[in-house]
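User: Hello, beginner here. Can you help me understand these amino acid letters and fold codes? It all follows right here:
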Amino acid sequence: MLTSEQEAVAGRLHPVEGAEGMSTVEAKTQQFASKNKQSLITRALRIEWLGQTVASLCWIVSVFTYGISSVGDWLQLAAATAWLVANIAALLTSADA
């Protein structure tokens, strides 16, 4: 499934066969996907994202290490998991991409 940015790129291109039997649209889509993957890796390796993700994972591990024995422990686990999900969502939907 194409994103709106990919559709915009594809809409501006004419499907002309390239040297390798690949249309220009397909070639541009592959270039965009490659650039987007590199951008995702670059964002994931930033210290801000890594630090928060490691911290949320440590928080989750600590809840299981000390055990879940009360409602407060479940709330701690929910908060740590929400933090991790928010970090992943921010990585995948970053405005930098």
